[in-house]
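Support request from a user on the community tier.

User writes: "When I paste my structure tokens into the form, the page sometimes reloads and wipes my input. The last time it worked, I copied everything first. Here is what I submitted, just in case something in the input itself triggers the reload:"
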């Protein structure tokens, strides 16, 4: 037996013997009752054990390697179906109680996709690197060849009005690089991707090309979903790489018409059976009170969704593994959920919250990891101001040794949002965001872009939050 495993065994005995309440008791001063030890003091040793146990191996990375080896997991696809079986098997191997919760999802498939500058000839720019946006309708088989109109805002689109009729609208709106939190720049640019097609259709456009939402200048188009307004014609929509967008813009700046031929062979195959995947360690004292951790299992199909959001799923599994090793009998249930179909409208999260099985359960906290596997920097926590204040008193000191710099109000997540209505305090793991949109929804989102220790540290911080919440409540 190694000294460290002996240490863990001893800690486990103390935790199960009496909840660790006497772990780091205050000093008794003559004539005074000892101050009760704080939550942070009582769990400092447990948090340290979770951290060192996680960093000892590359378990999370090897699990993510298994998941991504199966290829992309576009919702409704064979790859997504295989990932359902695989993640359930992984959790069964680790000794968790597991089950599937069947749901229906949409199944959109990509086909041929090309864009070529057909006018002016000899422009030095023949083909553009593009990708169909998810949910896009196809072009006619022969494609759409039409003049390009560059648009830099929805206001400009409205002002140009009839000028875009019958043309391909090229939304060239770069992500704002100034905010330190890159999600801010992403949030400002993404409406052109999600709503641009319908806004352009309102003005009579034939199709849209949207500048990829990334801060990098490169040749990788970034996918994403287009949400059509049901009252407007559906027109084909594709993303163009940032380098392609810059080249197209430079060509337009020379004056004279620029015409592009766009071919998209994507199509919707209709509702398909799929599932949310669940694994848990049942609570020993309050099994119906649940701390749920998770990410979404579906991904885009250009890479293998290593960061988005294979990482979140694997971190949830690894967090449960670390908790089980520390304390096989937490007081409340700790559950990992791999939500399906986040990318095409987050239906898996809604289906999970609404499933009949939820009726006898009470989710006290719901933690989501869906911001990539980069170095942990913070945690967003929801709940009432009182709940936030209480959580923060232990979360900050217990997470700091694992690299967490701050705990702030927040915590909203695409998949966990519906659980808030049922009383769960939402929690969001926040890694450093500087590199996330370099890979997000693109062919660069593969295992090689994930660092084993950064991935693991995320799992460790999630394990600490989940374990203390399961022991102490919210
Ligand atoms: Zn995601």
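"...and here is what came back when it finally went through:"
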């Amino acid at each position: 037996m190694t000294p460290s495993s002996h240490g863990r065994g001893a800690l486990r005995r103390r935790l199960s013997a009496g909840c660790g309440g006497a772990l780091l008791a205050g000093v008794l001063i003559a004539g005074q009752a000892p101050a009760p030890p704080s939550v942070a003091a009582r769990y400092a040793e447990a948090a340290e054990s979770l951290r060192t146990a996680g960093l000892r191996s590359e378990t999370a990375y090897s699990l993510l390697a298994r998941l991504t080896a199966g290829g992309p997991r576009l919702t409704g696809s064979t790859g997504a179906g295989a990932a359902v079986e695989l993640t359930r098997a992984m959790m069964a191997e680790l000794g968790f109680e597991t089950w599937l919760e069947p749901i229906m999802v949409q199944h959109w498939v990509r086909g041929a996709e090309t864009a070529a500058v057909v006018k002016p000839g000899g422009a030095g720019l023949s083909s553009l690197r593009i990708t169909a946006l998810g949910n896009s309708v196809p072009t006619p088989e022969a494609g759409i060849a039409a003049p390009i109109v560059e648009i830099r805002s929805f206001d400009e689109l409205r002002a140009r009005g009839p000028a875009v009729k019958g043309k391909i609208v090229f939304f060239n709106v770069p992500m704002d690089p100034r905010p330190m939190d890159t999600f801010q720049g992403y949030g400002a640019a993404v409406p052109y991707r999600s709503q641009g097609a319908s806004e352009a259709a309102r003005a009579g456009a034939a199709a849209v090309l949207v500048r990829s939402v990334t801060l990098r200048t490169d040749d990788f188009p970034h996918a994403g979903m287009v949400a059509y307004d049901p009252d407007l014609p559906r027109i084909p929509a594709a993303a163009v790489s940032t380098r392609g967008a810059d080249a197209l813009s430079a060509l337009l700046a020379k004056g004279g018409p620029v015409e592009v031929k766009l071919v998209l062979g994507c199509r919707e195959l209709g509702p398909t059976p799929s599932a949310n995947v669940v694994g848990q360690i049942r609570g020993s004292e309050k099994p119906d009170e649940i701390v749920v951790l998770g990410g979404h299992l579906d991904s885009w199909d250009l890479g293998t969704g290593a960061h988005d959001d294979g990482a979140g799923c694997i971190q949830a599994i690894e967090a449960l593994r670390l908790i089980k090793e520390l304390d096989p009998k937490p007081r409340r249930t700790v559950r990992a959920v791999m939500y399906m179909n986040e990318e095409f409208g987050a239906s898996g999260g809604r289906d999970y919250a609404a499933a009949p099985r939820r009726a006898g359960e009470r989710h006290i906290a719901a933690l989501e990891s869906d911001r990539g596997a980069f170095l942990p920097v913070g945690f967003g926590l929801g709940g009432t101001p009182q709940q936030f204040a209480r959580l923060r008193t232990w979360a900050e000191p217990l997470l700091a040794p694992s690299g967490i710099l701050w705990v702030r109000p927040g915590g909203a997540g695409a998949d966990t949002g519906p659980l808030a209505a049922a009383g769960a305090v939402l929690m969001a793991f926040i890694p450093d965001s500087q590199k996330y949109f370099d890979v997000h929804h693109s062919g660069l989102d593969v295992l090689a872009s994930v660092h084993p220790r950064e991935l693991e540290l995320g799992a460790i911080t999630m394990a600490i939050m989940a374990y203390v919440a399961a022991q102490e409540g919210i």
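Agent notes: The reload is a front-end session timeout and is unrelated to the input. The pocket of zinc ion is lined by residues 296, 308-309, 342, 370 (CB under 6 Å). Residues 1-10, 16-26 have pLDDT under 50 and may be disordered. Escalated to web team.
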